Amino acid sequence: QTVGNDPGRVACAELSSWVNAMWLPAKCAAAGRGVWASRLCVLRRSGSNTAAFMPEAAGFGGVSGRAALQDFSLSDGDSFWAAAARHRLSWSRPFRTVRDCDLSRGRIKWFEDGELNVSVNCLDRHVHTCPERVALIWERDERGSEVRYTYRELLEMTCRVGNLLRRRGVKKGDCVTIYMPTCPLAVASMLACARIGAAHNVVFAGFSAEALAERIRDAQSSTVITVNQGVRGGKVTELKKTVDAAVQSCPTVQQVFVAMRTEKPVTMTARDVAMEEEMLKEDVVCEPAAMSSEDILFLLYTSGSTGKPKGLVHTQAGYLLYAALTHRYVFSYQDGDVFGCVADIGWITGHSYTVYGPLANGATTVLFESTPVYPDPGRYWDMVERLKINQFYGAPTAIRLLLRYGDQWVNKYDRSSLKTLGSVGEPINTEAWEWYHRVVGEGRCPVVDTWWQTETGGICIAPKPSEPDAEIVPGMAMRPFFGIKPVLMDAEGKVLTTNNTSGALCMAQPWPGMARTIHNDHQRFIETYFRPYPGYFFTGDGAYRSKEGYYQITGRLDDVINVSGHRIGTAEIEDVVNQCPAVAESAVIGYSHSIKGEAVYAFVVLKKDVNVPEAELSKELKSIVSEKIAKYASPDLIQFVKRLPKTRSGKIMRRVLRKVVESDLDSLGDLSTLDDPTAVQEIIQGHQELL
Ligand code: ATP
Ligand code: MG
C-alpha cells in the first residue's frame, strides 16, 4: 500500500489499523478535494496571513548577524520581538502592545491584545503554499514501517478531531488530557485542542494510573484521549486499561476517546468513544477559534526530578514564537530539512521541538515512537539513514547508553545527511559529548548542548546561533539566545559581574516563551521562581561563566555539595568519573559527614564486559578526581550499581539517592515519575552491603 500521493512515500504492508482505516487518501480524497475551495475560504475568513516566510534578515528590521541581533534583542526588546512576531506568525487581529511584564510580581504577558490561532500557524498557512510537503514522519516502533503525513493530511486529521471534540461538548477554555504514545493522532489531538481553543495536558504514556489520575484531577479534565494499546520497544502496554483505572478516581472525566494503535479490541464502556469511527463522520474543515495571545495553549507537568511535578502553563503567541525562532536558529534549520527530535511528546522537548517549533516553521518533523536500543543499539542511526535526518536532537542519557555498545552500531549506517546534533535534559559529560561529535557526527557536525526547562518554553542557552566559525566548547551551553539575559547570583543575592565565576542562574529579562503560572497555584509560581531573587526569574540551576563569558550548567542548586567549605556541583565530579574508560555513567551526591560537613558519595555504573575488581576501580576513580579537580572532591564512598534511578524522561533522580544514603527511606518523596522502581531496591541493598 502506498500512503499518499507523494512518490517518496514508503510502501508498507502492515500499517496499523488507524492508518488503514482512516488516513489512506483513497478514503479521504473525495471529502478532501470537495472541501478544498471552502477551506481556502476559511483561511480568508480567519484573516490568515498566507505569505511565505520572510527572508531571514527582514524579520528583524534588516538587522542580521548574531552579535547585532543579540544587541538589538536586549537593547530594544520590544522592537525586536514585535518584528519577530509580525513576520513569523499569522495574526487574525494584530497586536498593539508587545509586553506587559513585571518579574517582581511574576506577571508576564506578551502581545496581549493580538489574536491568532496556533493550529492555523502550524498547518493552514503551509497547506496554502505547499500542501503536499511532508509534515510528519512517524517512525513507528516496528522498524522500517515509517509513515509520512503531508501538511494537507495533518490539517484534515486535525480538523476532524477538532470537530469531534466540539460536537462532544469540548469548549474553549476546557482542558483535554492526552495519554498517547508519540504518533500522528496525538499531534493532531494537540493541534485540534489549539484549533478549538481548548488547552491540552499531555501525560507521558508510560506513567502509572495513579500518576495519570493525579494529573487529570489537577487539570480538571472532563475529556481524555488515549489509544487501546501502546507499542514501545517491542512491548505492548495496556494504555486503555491504565486510563480505566485512573478515571475511577477522577470524577470530572465524562468521556474517553479511544483510538486504535493495534488491532486488539478493548472493552468499551458508556463513557468511551471509538475515536476513528467518530472522526470519519466529521468534516475536514474546522473553523479555527480566534484566541487571544494570553489564552492558555497547554499545561504540562515537569519531570519531577526535584520533587512534586509542577503543572506549568504556557500561552499561545509568545510560546509559539519562541519555539519557532529557537528551532530555526539554534539548530540552523533550513526549509526542506528533516528534523529529528527523539523526545516523547509527553515532555516539553516533544512539545516545542517535535510539534510546535518545527510545524510553525513548515518543517518535516519526525515522531519517534521507539527506544534507542530497539531492536538493537543501531536504531537511531538506521533511522537517520532511512529518513535522511538533517538535525538530530536527543538526550545525554541515551548517548551514554549507546556509547557503551561501541562504535560499530553507529558506523554501520550512513549519517551523511546530518548537519547538527543537539543534546538536552541534563549536563552532557565530556566523554559523551566527544563521542557524539566524533563518532556520530563524524567530527563535522556542530553539537549544540541546549539548556532550558519546562518553565522556559524553549531553549535559552545554546552554542548557536553564533557567528560562522565561532568556537563550540565541549559540554558547554555557552551563548544566551536572542532576548535572553542570564545573570549569576552569589549566596547573598548579589549579581556577580565578573567572568570566571559560578553562581545561581537567573534571568534578568522576560522572554515570550516563559511559563505564565503553575496551574491552580500562582502563589507557588511566585515563591519558586520570583521570590528567591526579587526582580529575576530563578532557574534552580547553577552555572559557571568562563573567562570568555560562556555559560556552563553545573547542575541543580539542590545538588551542590559543600565539602569543608568548598562548594562543588555534582556535574563536575560526574564528568571526571565518567571519563574513566570503565565507567558508563555515574551519579554523585553529598552526605553529611562529622568533620567535613558533607562528603562525596558516587554511584557508578560500569560499561559492559568490565572485569577489573571493584576495589581497584574505586582507588583509581578517587585518584582521578583528586588529580583533575581537587582532593576534597574525591568520593569518600563509591557504590557500583547496575543502573541509576531515573525519571521517565531519563534524568538521574539524585534526591532519591540522597534519601537512600541518609537511610531516610520513609521520605523518598514523589516517585510518580520514577522510571524503574527496582533500580531503587537494588541500590538500597547495595548501600547496606557497602556499609
Ligand atoms: P522538576 O522541575 O519537576 O524537578 P525537571 O527540572 O527535571 O523536574 P524539566 O523541566 O524537564 O524538569 O527539566 C529542566 C531541567 O533539566 C533544568 O532545570 C536542568 O536542571 C536540566 N537540564 C536541561 N537541559 C540541560 C542542559 N543542556 N545541561 C544541563 N542541565 C540541563
Ligand atoms: Mg525543574
UniProtKB/TrEMBL annotation:
Domain Acetyl-coenzyme A synthetase N-terminal: 68-122
Superkingdom, taxonomy of origin: Eukaryota
Residue ranges annotated for the AMP-binding enzyme C-terminal domain, each copy included: 572-651
EC number: 6.2.1.1
GO BP terms, alphabetized: acetyl-CoA biosynthetic process from acetate; lipid metabolic process
Keywords per UniProt: ATP-binding, Ligase, Lipid metabolism, Nucleotide-binding
GO molecular function: acetate-CoA ligase activity; AMP binding; ATP binding; propionate-CoA ligase activity
GO CC, one annotated term: mitochondrion
Keyword flag Ligase: yes
Family: Belongs to the ATP-dependent AMP-binding enzyme family.
Name recorded for this polypeptide: Acetyl-coenzyme A synthetase
Lineage, uppermost ranks: Eukaryota, Metazoa, Chordata, Craniata, Vertebrata
